[in-house]
Amino acid sequence: MSAQLYLASRSPRRAALLQQLGLRFETLAADVPEQPAPGQAPADYALATALAKARAAAGLAALPLPVLAADTDVSVDGRILGKPRDRDDALAMLRQLSDRSHEVHSAVVVIGGGRVESAVTMTRVCFGPIGAAQAAAYWESGEPADKAGAYAIQGLAARWVRRIEGSYSGVVGLPLFETCELLQRFGLACGGSA
Question: Does the active-site annotation cover 73?
Fold first, then answer.
């Protein structure tokens, strides 16, 4: 069966979430700089990055299918926590997240047929305490190395989640409800039928 859209992401988590929706897609590399501008709000940063990824992928060729891109960021008190540079950076992030709540913004952009549609979600995640030894062992697991905020909610870090308000799939990397709404505007139905 042929693809219904392009996914501008190498994230295996986003690919798995799209497969969960029953969508057929091809993956395109969309490497763009991921550095917030000074003072940029987390929601604005997520949207700008997702839009840049979608435009980069759509510019690869005259693509006949819609292009979907997403970006997710973690923030504490309005400060964006990117992917950790190293072990010390990851441990510092986990200390900031310990025993408090933080926000996760996830943006989705779909480009196709001369149109651009987008959505941004905000989810509040409350962590319980994270001990220094726990954080160090978590780093050693390898899981947080390439994750915004140095954690994966769908992985080992789930044990620290006290409460979540918003989109779980958005924290994983692709808010499914909003993604389906956007894709419907391009004539694509989630669940395997078009």
Answer: no
